[in-house]
Specification:
A: alpha/beta, Rossmann fold, four-stranded parallel beta sheet, 4 strands, globular, B: 243 residues, alpha/beta
């Protein structure tokens, strides 16, 4: 793993996602996991909502987060692997160290993963299969509205805000056409990631649960219940939930809808409003 | 349970469910939604087609026992963990009668029922309970009488595949209610026609059928009466010769 190069960031400048990698969120005492689950989540599919709610369940389900995100590696590796250079982190040793401090009292460790994050370590469908096969249960997130996903991803890339706090993005409408190539690129990426994950589900002999963004938006509590039921193997013990970590808000959709209309107009041959 | 976008297959032990699973994974065009082998549903998935497998009980028990002789299966694992593995399996196929006697006993056999179903051992044999909890979603929470009527009702599965005609029935589903789920139905039909063996146990009883005392045959017919009455009325082991 050599995708990280800078020193530990200023805690006051951390995003909600990055704050999860601070020591205060370690689950102590350190322990080895008895079972592990993987949340395969392409961007903008609702994984922040579900994983943060799981983080807020005391004593169960670990602290699922993107531990292979370069920002996480940059924060966690120097802290957990003493003397480790952040630009040369041994993958297996790093994962073992993370698991030891992010396994909850029920022996559970959860990892949220964007396929591209694994590709930085080991690329290809075989690597994804082998990695996923090392987990006991797999949750796969998807979004039926791929264009909506691409638009949301583009807005997040542009604003640097991946965690919805309900604030609409501050972008001028005249700049919208500049986003079209990125939307198209993201659309292609998300379609391909969805295809890979769907193929993985059929190839992998592991308990599998596919959840869709649209259902989370429609009834987040019901989808969370399905997820808990799946991770619990059908054993319905009451949950001890606490607001330990921030759960994202429902995003403002006005800007995204304007961007969608302009993008669809563009690919249908209407003027972008810029250029000759 | 293996659930796709428009249908759900409830996987019943030793009824060909691994074969159907392999078929669906390789040939179905839909995305896999949920997979937890042998898990029962609390309620039907709205708008989806549901189906399950069944098998003539004596043949199913023989298959289960042979599976244990292969060192596989949940019952083998539990017996082994209880220190009873050698007692039941060391003698090979000759151990079948003693093993079946244990499983048919409502008290001693209860621990081999699905988790949460132990108390239902008094009401039916292991195979009947395994079938009903899959075929009638939510049955475990309400195992009241009228099973046959409930199985035919709107809250149960839409189709039951008999192990004895598994390929033909699955082919009919692909031609019928599930045709939309197979983009290349010709390829799917060809896969079924080849019928590769998947997760099958080696059947020692084919060469030398184990002898079963009349009392045990009668008890088997009584304990699994629901399955015999509904699916195998002409196959009751207390009315037939051998094994």
């Amino acid at each position: 793993m050599n995708s990280v190069t800078s020193a530990a960031p200023d805690p006051s400048a951390l995003t909600p996602g990055q704050r999860l990698y601070l020591a205060e969120y370690d689950l102590l005492p350190a322990r080895e996991p008895a079972w592990r689950y993987l949340v395969l989540s392409p961007q903008r599919t609702g994984s922040n909502y579900l994983c943060r709610r799981l983080c807020n369940v005391r004593g169960r389900f670990g602290m699922p987060s993107e531990y292979l995100n370069p920002a996480a590696v940059r924060q966690l590796a120097p802290r957990l692997l003493h003397g480790c250079r952040p630009d040369n982190v041994p993958f297996a040793t790093y994962m073992q160290a993370v698991q030891r401090v992010r396994t909850s009292a029920d022996g559970c460790f959860g990892l949220k993963l964007q396929p591209a994050q694994l590709a930085a370590v080991a690329a290809g469908d075989r690597a994804l299969f082998d990695f996923a096969a090392s987990f006991d249960r797999i949750v796969a997130l998807s979004r039926r509205d791929k264009l909506g996903q691409a638009i949301s991803g583009t807005i997040a890339q542009l604003t640097g805000t991946w965690f919805n706090d309900g604030t609409p993005p501050a972008l001028e409408d005249r700049r919208l056409p500049q986003l079209f190539p990125t939307i198209a690129g993201n659309l292609s990426r998300y379609v391909e990631e969805d295809r890979r994950i769907a193929a993985l589900g059929k190839a992998l002999d592991r308990p599998w649960l596919r959840l869709e963004h649209e259902d989370i938006v429609a009834d987040g509590q019901a989808v969370f219940g399905t997820l808990v039921d799946f991770l619990s193997g059908g054993v319905s013990d009451p949950l001890d939930e606490a607001p330990d970590v921030q759960v994202p808000e429902r995003p403002s959709t006005d800007f995204a809808e304007r961007l969608r209309a302009r993008f669809l107009g563009y690919i249908n041959g209407q003027s972008t409003g810029i250029g000759p | 349970m293996i659930e796709f976008q428009t249908f759900c297959f409830l996987q019943n032990h030793k009824t060909g469910c691994s074969f159907i699973e392999a078929f669906l994974r390789q040939q179905c065009s839909e995305d896999l939604v949920r997979y937890e082998k042998h898990r029962a549903l609390r309620a039907r998935r709205a708008g989806k087609f549901h189906f399950v497998g069944v098998r003539e009980p004596l043949d199913a028990y023989l298959s289960l026992f042979n599976y244990g002789l292969d060192g596989r299966g949940e019952i083998f694992a539990r017996l082994h963990a209880a220190g009873l593995g050698a007692e039941h399996y060391a003698g090979g196929i000759d151990g079948f009668a003693g093993w079946l006697d244990l499983l048919l006993d409502p008290e001693r056999g209860a621990s081999f029922y699905p988790p949460g179903c132990e108390s239902l051992a008094a009401r039916g044999g292991l195979l009947t309970v395994r079938f009903l909890r899959l075929a009638i979603p939510g049955w475990e929470q309400d195992p009241s009488d009228g099973w046959r009527e409930r199985l035919a009702g709107p809250n149960a599965v839409d189709a039951v595949l008999r192990h004895e005609s598994l390929v033909e029935q699955m082919q009919a589903l692909v031609r019928g209610p599930l045709r939309h789920a197979f983009a290349d139905s010709s390829r799917a039909q060809a896969w079924l026609a080849e019928a590769p063996r998947v997760n099958a146990s080696r059947r020692r009883d084919r060469d030398a059928a184990p002898r079963l005392p009349t009392e045990l045959r009668t008890r088997l017919a009584e304990r699994e009466r629901f399955l015999y009455d509904v699916f195998y009325p002409g196959h009751r082991p207390d009315a037939a010769e051998g094994p």
